[in-house]
Design goal:
Elements: H1 2-6, H2 11-27, H3 31-46, H4 59-64, H5 67-76, H6 80-83, E1 89-94, E2 99-106, E3 109-114, E4 123-127, H7 129-137, H8 142-145, E5 150-154, H9 156-163
Parallel strand pairs: 1-4
Antiparallel strand pairs: 1-2, 2-3, 4-5
Helix pairs in contact: 2-3
Length: 169
């Protein structure tokens, strides 16, 4: 393991470590640990995948994820250096779900909570959950963004600068 980390191009060390991970995977009683060891062995032999996850392929899964958990994942994607000193409040109103969520930046950290429609925000986005998912996956084109399913109130400039703080998954 130390040799592979010191010299990743050493084929003999990679092959030996892959054999060790194979054995550890075969002997693991836990399914997740078995997956970890066998995936590591596979990557040592064949290299890691270069292709990023296609969010469009995961649309069925994204439909099942509660909105608050999705906002948790957005918080993990905030670029802290860019967000430093920013103070932005964005409200999402999901017209089809009957849910309103307030997101705000504080100390370069994105926070969110369920809210009511009267909460104060720099920008308010009213949209359907399906349109939100299409925006997240990149399937929503300019025509879709100009549709009746989307309404933006408040500062569009702050809204755009808010979304620029998010790293690509």
């Amino acid at each position: 393991n130390h040799l592979v980390f010191a010299d990743a191009s050493n084929a003999d060390a990679r092959a030996l470590l892959a054999k060790a991970y194979d054995q550890m995977g075969y002997q693991a009683e836990s399914g997740p640990w078995r997956d970890v060891y066998l995936s590591a062995a596979y990557e040592l032999r064949h290299g890691s995948t270069k292709q990023a996850v296609n969010m469009t392929d995961a649309i069925g899964l994204l439909r099942k994820i509660p909105v608050n958990q999705f906002f948790d994942s957005m918080a993990a994607r905030i670029d802290g250096m860019k967000a430093d000193g920013k103070d932005t409040r964005v409200k999402f109103v999901f017209t089809d779900l009957g849910e309103t969520h307030l997101l705000w930046l504080e100390n370069a950290v994105l926070h969110h909570e369920p809210s009511d429609e009267n909460a104060e925000a720099d920008a308010t986005i009213k949209l359907t959950h399906e349109l939100f998912l299409n925006m997240v996956t990149g399937d929503a084109g300019l025509g879709t963004l100009m549709s009746d399913d989307l309404d933006v109130d408040g500062s569009r400039l702050k809204l755009v600068s808010f979304f620029r703080l998010l790293d690509k998954p």
